[in-house]
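Entry:
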Amino acid sequence: MASIRLLDKRRKSIRNIRKITRTMELIATARFKKAMDRASAASDYTNLITAIVQDLAKSGTEVSHPLLQSRETVKTSEMLLLTSNRGLCGGYNGSVLRLALQRRAEIAESVESQPISVSGKRGISALKFRNIQLEKTFTQFDDSPGFDEVSRIADDLMERFITGKIDRVDVVFTKFITVSKQVAVVETLLPISNLAIESKKLKQSETTSTSESAIKDDYEFLPSAESILEEVVPAAFRARVFKCFLDAAVSEQIARMIAMKSATENAGDIIKQLSRTFNRARQSKITQEIMEIIGGVEALG
């Protein structure tokens, strides 16, 4: 049996670790609430503007936008991978990386080039370890990504897509569905005509008797269809990319919160086990000392 001093030292060490994991759990909880509020606020706008763009694409007008045009042959497919800058978040990064590598393997034979850009130090180090050359890297995003910084990434992707340098853009990230469900997904952002909408159901108020007739297939463009599409389509793409970053931030904080909660509970179980072992060892030592005293008294007598 281990000595009492070593058991007590180890128990104190585990208690210190439990304090750290508990603090990290509380921090992740606070950050999660802020990130979820931002993601929820952007969700309705993103879904609605994307639905408008898709309806415009199907409206039968002769006007089109370069971001809506699908390429007959996809030669260059770029991937944007969203991971975290820090660890201690369970399998958050691992699930995204596995899905990204699986996607690359699936389309390896059908495309000529697969440039990949990564956001997050964990994803950057993991792909560099696998000797995968990275197109661009981003480490400035944390639990609260800014729209201006994300817009610059979106503008760069749109420019390269319009000029023909890339034919498709996929983003791999952890999609926030509910507090208890986050799923690693691959979504095709460009061309926008292939973009899957999370939900096309619009919230109806209690007195929306005319809500069904409000959605029309025919549009009247003022001042012109070209000017409207020129503004709406890029705005929809920027909003969609920003929503991906927000979902990734929320999912990361949830994963970290769950991981730290589990670590705190496990530390508590280890402390209980060490306390029982410590008490047994101390009781055994006390019994041994009493027997030695009794033996000494009998020997003197």
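Helices lie at 4-57, 92-106, 121-129, 147-162, 211-214, 225-300.
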